[in-house]
Structures are given as structure tokens and as C-alpha cells.
## 1
Amino acid sequence: MRKWHNARGEGKVFSFDVVDEHQGEIRLTCFNQVAEKFEPMVQVGGVYVISKGSLKPKRKEFNNTNSDYEISLELSSVVEECSEEVDIPRVIYQFSKVRDLQEMDFGSVMDICGIPETIGEAAVIMRRDGTETQKRTMTVVDDSGCSVEVTAWGTIGAETIPQLEQMFQQGLRPVVAFKGLRLGNFGGRSLSTISSSQINIDPEVPEAAAVRNWYAQGGAQNKTSLTTAYGGRADKKCTFGMLKDEQSSGSLPGTLFLQVTGTISFIRSDSGVMYPACPRMNGERACNKKMRQEGQDEKWYCEKCQSESPTVDWRYIFSILAMDHTSACWLSLFNEAGESIFGMTANQLKDLQDNNTLEYERVVSAANFKTFHFKVRVAEDTYNDERPALMRCGALSALP
Ligand SMILES: [Zn+2]
């Protein structure tokens, strides 16, 4: 179940994919009350008789079932547990070879059957909405002789990945089937789970036997990695060109930290480069919400703290266009980055702006064409994985 918010309001959506005994597959989707009604009833691996849903064409970019349609359920729809014994396959795969990912479009969703060769540590990632999610990255190779990084997000693989690690410790390298991975261009080409993804160890499919034989004969000794540049790890160096691809592909959920070296080509300063922040302490951290001046005595007022203050703390917030030899990107900068760029605190610069306009303008324009290492935070800005992620950049620090 996912919650979504947009300009028209908010709601909940729940979807699940079903397979039948004729190898048919279809996605069922329900919203709001309907989602609340059916979500507790449906279990992965359960067998159900479903009726009174309505059929509509599927949105291909988000749905890799083998049907051209999806079913939406209403409150009047019926989902009943099936009491009869039926022989229904648990998962239907349409495997792609890792090598073929080179020709596939970013955003495609596919199934992979391969052998994980490395499993990274679990990392906790902070989402932009403040919630946390977990990710595990594996390198997976198959009998096409290519390997790719696969990142499992959230609870996907929460049971299978620890099992895999145990098998690794025993020196085993089992075949794993990944159902429903999305192709992204993070670090060349890489795959990520989406909410409907599944990870199954030693699947009973013919492809698994072929991969197992190939691996046992040493096939993986000469392999080509499709994920190269900075795949999977934090604080990797990249270029603005790579950053821009990352922004437009929206391939990665969660948050990444990347290092880019670039030159400032423009500072957007028409509406100022700082804001009046609330200095009131909330525990160890200052409130920092934007204050407004009101009343005839021009006192500063903080909406959040609901209190007045005779003084404010000026903090930097502005955007710059930064570039390197590959491309240019807009970055949002905050207080610490501003201090590095202007060489003084926002309070000091505010003082110049009020009392020595010429010097203020000189300081701001002097920062143009300086080169910095930017630590850029690229964050997902999406409420469910059924729409492409919007990414945002923020320079956390800029070091000359
Ligand atoms: Zn405040």
C-alpha cells in the first residue's frame, strides 16, 4: 500500500499481480477505501477467486505483466480465498539476458536469472520525506557473460538476501531469479527493484540450470561489467553529464551523495542569497524556519514556534549554475556551502548588503568562475514508484 499526494489531493493505492494456470498474468489495482478493504486479505502466494473488477488498458511503462490490461477493483468487487486444490505457477518469468540490457531503454522492467557474485552491506537511506529505507546492492552475472549491479530497496529481498549471505558463507553461489527489475543508468547500466519485484533463490526454471552449468564450467571468469562508473556506492566522483542523466532518468529511489568538481557559471541572486531564519533552539538544533517581519515595530515572527524575536539569524539559500567539461547543472545551496563560496557567514554578507552595497556586489560576483568540489545530494522526489522520480541536487559543501 502506498500513499500519494499531489495538487488534487491525496490517497492510497494498493496493487498486486496475479498469475493463473494458463500462464496468464495481470495486475490488480485498488484505491483508497477499496485498497484498505483488500490489502489485508491478499497474501503473496495465496490463491484467490476474484470477480467484479473492471478491465482497462495497462500503463506499459510501469507494468511488466504479460497482459495488455489491468483490472481495477471497486468496493463491490469480490476477492475470495480459493478452497479448491489448483496447480498455479507461483511466478511467471520472461527472462532477459544481462548482455541485452545494453540495448534496452532506461526505465524498462525485466526479469533476470543469474548468479550474485557479491552482496554489499545493508545501507540505510534517508528519503526526502524524512522516512528511511534500506538498500542492498549485488553484482549479478549470467551466462551471457555480462554482470550488472542490482539494488534491492526496502523490504524487497528482506528474507532472501540473508539466506543468500548464509549460502555465500558456505561457499555456495546459487542461481537467483529476479522478477520485475527496472533498468537505470546509474553508473552505466544498473537494475533496481520496484514495489512488485521478487527475488527467488534456486528457481525451478530451465534457465536456472543453464546458468548453473555455465558458471560451474568457469564461464564467469571473463565477464563484462555493465555497471562501471560509480555504481552503488556513496560519495563517488562523477561529472555533471552523469548527474544530469541521473536526474532525467529518475532511475534511483532513495538518496545518493556524489562528488562533482565544477566551476560556478552563474549565481542566482536577484531575490537575494539568504533568508531570515528563526534562531530559537529546539533542543540542540536551531529552528531555522523562515521568519517574517510584521507589525509597526517590525518584530520578527516565526510561524512554527509561534513566537517573536527581536533578532534573526541570516542563512544562505540560493541556486547556482555549475559546469564542467561535460555539462551544466543547477544546484541548490544552503548555509555551509554558501559560507565556502562567499568566504563569510550569511550574517556578515547581510551586513555588507545593508551597509556597503558595492562591496556586497563585489563579493557575490567574485564567486563566479571559481571552481569547487561539490558534494551533491541527489534525492528521489516521488510518492510511489508508479511515476518517474524527480531528482533534486543540493550542494552540501563546496571546497575551493
Ligand atoms: Zn522558529
## 2
Amino acid sequence: MRVLLVCLAGLLVCLQTADSHSLPQKDYDTDSSNHDITNPLNDTSGNNSSSVPDNSSGIFDSNATTFIARTITRRGNKVDKSIYAYKNGKVKKILEDGNAISDWSPKSRTFLGNKDGIYIYDTETEKLEKYGNLSDNVIGITIENHSDDLYILTEDHVVYKITEEGTKKVKINEAEHAEKIALDWDDNLYYIGANDHPYVVTSAGAKKIEGLPVNSTIPLISRPPIKIKHGAWLMSLKQPYIIYPNATSEPYVFSDQEKLEYMKTERAFETILSQLENQLAE
Ligand SMILES: *[C@@H]1O[C@H](CO)[C@@H](O)[C@H](O)[C@H]1NC(C)=O
Ligand SMILES: *[C@@H]1O[C@H](CO)[C@@H](O)[C@H](O)[C@H]1NC(C)=O
Ligand SMILES: *[C@@H]1O[C@H](CO)[C@@H](O)[C@H](O)[C@H]1NC(C)=O
Ligand SMILES: *[C@@H]1O[C@H](CO)[C@@H](O)[C@H](O)[C@H]1NC(C)=O
Ligand SMILES: *[C@@H]1O[C@H](CO)[C@@H](O)[C@H](O)[C@H]1NC(C)=O
Ligand SMILES: *[C@@H]1O[C@H](CO)[C@@H](O)[C@H](O)[C@H]1NC(C)=O
Ligand SMILES: *[C@@H]1O[C@H](CO)[C@@H](O)[C@H](O)[C@H]1NC(C)=O
Ligand SMILES: *[C@@H]1O[C@H](CO)[C@@H](O)[C@H](O)[C@H]1NC(C)=O
Ligand SMILES: CC(=O)N[C@H]1CO[C@H](CO)[C@@H](O)[C@@H]1O
């Protein structure tokens, strides 16, 4: 089964598709993907840096870079896992054994993680470089809004705060056996625990988020769309929720305009995925 995830911090979209039928090759899995928002805080003052959807050309058409973490499995074994950058209709493999893509980045630097640490990909220069000197196997990565610090989730389900330009890590003891991590715009840390339930890390320890339906699907968490100032974003099936640092939650109801945006993004994203498959097949 494929699970696709796209969370666009600059747009009101975060979508998940399972078993998308528009994709070819059965043995190709696209685990998760991400859209790089060039500069969400400056999207009105900047030149066409494309953090705002363009209704005529489609949101992925301009100079924006979309990242796709793609896993190929054959008979249940992973044979390849890499991160690709899609820009202006072209796909480029940028990181082998890549697992993690930050869901937002200041400026044009997107943070990526693989089995030997943290990398930065600059979407303007299209260059990849190692960040800091850590060598953890990174499966989740998220950047603070108010500082240069970040959080990583490692393959053994431990969460670390990374400071001093990627040279120092501190274990977050409150986040026990995390499956996924996310920050909100106020830099509160959330995670999905071993029981598939979301928690928020507070000064008084981890608190279980209340008010969510109990369902078997693993929810997705991410930074919320930029227009949501407080709280993080959670998708359970196709229903979005906002989860708050006080451990409460509420469903988010899409307006008609947002529904259109959502569908448009979903279509644009599927187009990118089939282009990726076509280009890689050549
Ligand atoms: C945006 O504008 C700034 C100065 O106004 C310029 O330095 C930069 O190259 C421009 N970026 C793009 C992508 O056009
Ligand atoms: C931004 O896009 C508009 C409309 O497409 C165009 O008129 C304008 O010249 C562009 N500005 C820059 C700096 O590229
Ligand atoms: C895309 O980037 C190129 C080169 O940096 C620039 O010439 C072009 O105007 C940009 N297009 C848009 C739509 O921003
Ligand atoms: C795009 O949106 C603008 C206003 O946001 C509108 O004036 C324009 O007609 C729209 N263009 C298309 C092709 O829908
Ligand atoms: C936004 O623009 C302002 C001024 O142009 C700049 O000081 C600031 O660093 C920019 N923010 C980001 C996140 O790039
Ligand atoms: C990384 O660099 C820092 C500062 O130079 C040093 O204290 C630390 O031991 C290094 N860590 C590793 C894992 O090499
Ligand atoms: C990020 O932090 C700045 C202050 O450093 C704040 O002004 C801004 O609103 C925050 N971004 C969002 C989307 O909340
Ligand atoms: C929790 O925080 C949200 C958002 O700030 C607020 O609307 C809600 O009333 C708070 N709930 C409690 C029980 O404090
Ligand atoms: C949101 C959603 O789909 N909730 C489902 C969770 O599971 C229960 C029972 O299995 C369903 O009745 C709900 O519809």
C-alpha cells in the first residue's frame, strides 16, 4: 500500500491518499512527500517566490520545489529509498537513504534526514550539504520558527532537540517511543506515540490530546497551514483537526474555497508523482 502525504504550510492543505490509482508500477511506494514553501513569512512582499497558489498555472508549476521521499519495495524488501526534488517539471535525486523532509523551512533551505544524519538542500542553488556532525538515522525532522534549532526523530523512536548548528543533541525524555513529530508555529512539540495517539510535550511532561475519534488509522501530524496561528494540524482519515498545546483538539471544517484548493493540490500532486515515475522509468 502507498501512503502519500503532502502538507503545505503556506496553503490550507494537508492531504493523504492511500492506494492512489493514478500511479503506475505496483511495486513502487511513495512514502511521503513534502512541498517546500520558499518563504512563507514573506509571501506578500517577495517577488514570485510561489508560496501562494497561482490559480492559473497550478501551485506546483513555478519555481517552487516539491520534495518526494520514495521507497521501492520488491516482495516486501526495501530496495531503494531516496529523496527527489521536483522543480519546473524536472525531477532530481538528491539524497540516498533519505527518510525525512522538514515540513517547513525558513528561506530556501530545506532540512532533510537520512541514515547518517542531517542535510540541507538549498532550493535556489540546488546544492546539498551536510548539516552539523551528527550521524543519527533520522526518520523525522522539524524546524523551530523562533530559532535555528530543530527536532529530529531517530529510527529507534527517540526525539532529540538539535542545537548549535547541528553539533549538539539533547534527548527529549517526555516523548516516549515517537512515531512522528511536529511543531506548531509557537514551537510546541507534538508527537504520535506507540499507541498511534498524539501527545503534546509540555513543561509538565507529555499530555495526551483529548477529543479525537478513536480509529485504527495512524493519524498524520504536521505544522498547520500558515493561517492557523496556534496549534498543530492532524489528519485522521481525511478529516483535519487542530490540536492545541493545552491537549484539547477540534475538527477543522474546510470552506468551499479550501475544498477547491485541496482538490486542486491533490490533482497537481498526483500529476507530479506520475511525472516522477515516467522520468525515472526512462
Ligand atoms: C527576488 O528579488 C530580489 C531582490 O528584490 C532578488 O535579489 C532575487 O534574485 C529575486 N529572486 C527571484 C527568484 O527572482
Ligand atoms: C511576478 O509575476 C508577475 C506576473 O506573472 C510578473 O508581471 C512580474 O514581472 C513578476 N515579477 C518578478 C520579479 O519576476
Ligand atoms: C524562476 O527562476 C528563474 C531563474 O531564477 C527566473 O528567471 C524566473 O523569473 C522565475 N520564475 C518565476 C515564476 O518566479
Ligand atoms: C485568479 O484569481 C484572480 C483573483 O484572485 C482572478 O482575478 C483571476 O480571474 C483568476 N484567474 C483564473 C484563471 O481563474
Ligand atoms: C522576511 O523579510 C524580511 C525583510 O525583507 C527579512 O528581514 C526576514 O529575514 C525575512 N524572513 C524570512 C523568514 O526570510
Ligand atoms: C560535534 O562537534 C561538537 C563541537 O565541535 C563537538 O563538541 C561534538 O563532540 C561533535 N560531535 C560528534 C558526534 O562528533
Ligand atoms: C514565527 O515567529 C515570528 C516571530 O519570530 C512570528 O512573528 C510569526 O508570526 C511566526 N510565524 C507564524 C506563522 O506564526
Ligand atoms: C485550549 O486552547 C484552545 C486554543 O487556544 C482554546 O480555544 C480552548 O478554550 C482551550 N481549552 C481549555 C480547556 O483550556
Ligand atoms: C472519522 C471516522 O471514520 N471514524 C470512524 C472510526 O471508527 C468507527 C468504528 O470503527 C466508525 O464508526 C467511524 O466512522
